[in-house]
Amino acid sequence: MSTHETPSIRTTRAGTAYADAARDHLWMSFTRQSTYEPTDSGGAGGSVPIIVKGEGAYIWDDRGRKYIDGLAGLFTVQVGHGREELAEAAAKQARELAFFPLWSYAHPRAIELAERLAADAPGDLNRVFFTTGGGEAVESAWKLAKQYFKLTGKPGKYKVISRSIAYHGTPQGALSITGIPDAKIPFEPLVPGGVKVPNTNLYRAPEHLRENPKAFGRYAADRIAEAIEFEGPDSVAAVFLEPVQNSGGCFPPPPGYFERVREICDEYDVLLVSDEVICAFGRIGSMFASTDFGYQPDIITVAKGMTSGYSPIGAMIASDRLFEPFRHGHEMFAHGYTFGGHPVSAAVAMANLDIFEREGLNQHVKDNAPAFRATLDKLLDLPLVGDVRGEGYFYGIELVKDKTTRETFNDEESERLLRGFLSKALFDAGLYCRADDRGDPVIQLAPPLIIGQPEFDDIEQRLRSVLTEAENHVETPPVKYRHL
Ligand SMILES: Cc1ncc(COP(=O)(O)O)c(C=O)c1O
Q1: Residues 6+ apart with CB under 8 A from 262
Q2: Do 347 and 95 touch, CB atoms closer than 8 A?
């Protein structure tokens, strides 16, 4: 089944086919636009996929084709698509108070949501600073860390340690924390002070540690202590870590990792920021994934799943200790966003969290995650599948050239396999997910939290058929055809 052959059947108000208007006017995020430019101007002549409808775990394109949403939009639509009550919550709030900022004033929905997040957040994380998305939450957390140390007599502490290949967003501070060179190079010089340490990719761990996750966890955590020592403890403000690192393909923390990181942060007075933009709101099984892994952060950053994507919002949730200097005198956190804590988004977040409670979604994830994992593990019999890893409803499937040696693909092979074949083939097979090559090539899965065994089987079957076919696309072509 090919998705991109027939012209789009819907048109804009101006009478242009959606795909043509998208090609001519829409500048998409992280998108190679040449894919959609006409062939006579050097493009690949593809047609922008246009999604027009969602229901439960499924989405439909403008040609009426149905896909299982294996990525919850973008790690976001936790409760599934088409929830009438979330649309209602938005409409009701827009009628009552469509907008008011949180600049020295407040509104009921932001207050209620802040109280609810504080109640669910671990320990004394009781202060909620709203943003409109995840990158802004990360940006806010770094700024808070810097100002906090200025106010408490350690003004030299400004650097941030984060992990290789980790993604933390696109504002220039968040990008400096990000560990993906290709995402950063075009915008350098970035905010100074971003320091990188190894991530927790057990599959690619030093060979002597691969069979001993605990030792690997200790090794990886100790790299943070080493970096702090190297940079100078008086210059390091915070460590930013995802509970399960997304970019690179789902790296869960090895046993003991966060325990050791917490110890290190305490020893050097460095803040531990848990970037839960993906992992919070049931993705791993609890409201906050730091709870799943049993560690206490100083700040949690969230966004995406807070409203299941029905309206944009993000937040930085900080500890009482970090708020303390701001309670007195003239001090303030001179930072904010017009739309931070937007009333409509806050109302939708409340209604979304009501669904979580009513339907026991977190428990559903905890109960079903082992079956999801076991179903995906079946793919390990395919020659291309090197590793299946993740937690909860969040998995990465790493593709390799040679399973025995774990040899990965070079850039050209990866390009041909992922961009040239897999991305489109998976979509054509009715599975919306992500083939990612920001680290080693992986397929990423993070479906809505409502699915169960029938959908696990469906996903596995679709992946199986496409990955079986993909083997025909990994052979290196004869030299004369390369670079065409
Ligand atoms: C861990 C993490 N942090 C931050 C961000 C940035 O969030 P946003 O795209 O809402 O700015 C993302 C986005 O995927 C993310 O995965």
Answers
A1: 272, 295, 296
A2: no
Q: Which of 333, 365, 163, 323 is nearest to 244 (CA)?
A: 163
Q: What pLDDT does 9 receive?
A: 62
Q: How is residue 337 written in tokens?
A: 């966003």
User: What residue's CA is closest to ligand 1, atom 3?
Assistant: 168
Question: Is the confidence at residue 7, as pLDDT, over 60?
Answer: no
Among 28, 75, 138, 170, which is best to mutate for testing ligand 1, by the most ligand atoms less than 8 A from CB?
138
Which of the four pLDDT bands, split at 50, 70 and 90, describes residue 397? very high
Query: Which is the closest atom of ligand 1 to the Cα of 276?
Result: 1
Q: If you count them, how many residues does the chain have?
A: 484
Direct distance between the N- and C-terminal alpha carbons of the chain, in angstroms, rounded to an integer = 25
302, 137 in Cβ contact below 8 A?
Answer: yes
| Tokens linked to 478 | 């004869």
Q: Using the mean position of ligand 1's atoms as its centre, give its distance from the Cα of residue 277 in Å.
A: 6
DSSP 248: T
Alpha helices per DSSP H over 296-410:
320-323, 343-359, 361-377
Name residue, tokens 């502490």: 157
- Residue 264, pLDDT above cutoff 50: yes
Percent of the chain with pLDDT over 90: 92
Q: Which ranges of 235-342 would DSSP assign to H, the alpha helix? A: 257-268, 289-293, 320-323
Confidence of residue 120 (pLDDT cuts 50, 70, 90): very high
Tell me, in angstroms, the distance from the centre of ligand 1 to residue 287's CA.
17
pLDDT band at 475, cuts 50/70/90? low
Do 258 and 251 form a contact (C-beta atoms < 8 A)? Answer: no
Q: In angstroms, rounded to a whole number, what is the distance separating the alpha carbons of residues 17 and 167?
A: 35
> What span, in angstroms and rounded, lies between the C-alpha atoms of 212 and 256?
12
| Residue keyed to tokens 């006579």 | 40
Q: Contact at 8 Å (CB) between 114 and 369?
A: no
d(CA 325, CA 66): 53
Mean of all residue pLDDT scores within the chain: 95
Neighbours of 255 (CB within 10 A): 14
Q: Is the pLDDT of residue 3 over 80?
A: no
Separation between Cα atoms, residue 378 and residue 260, nearest integer Å: 33
Flag whether pLDDT at 14 surpasses 80: yes
Cα–Cα distances in Å, from 272 out to 16, 157, 247, 420? 50, 14, 19, 40
Beta-bridge partners for 397: 388, 443
Instruction: State both tokens at 34.
Output: 């040449």
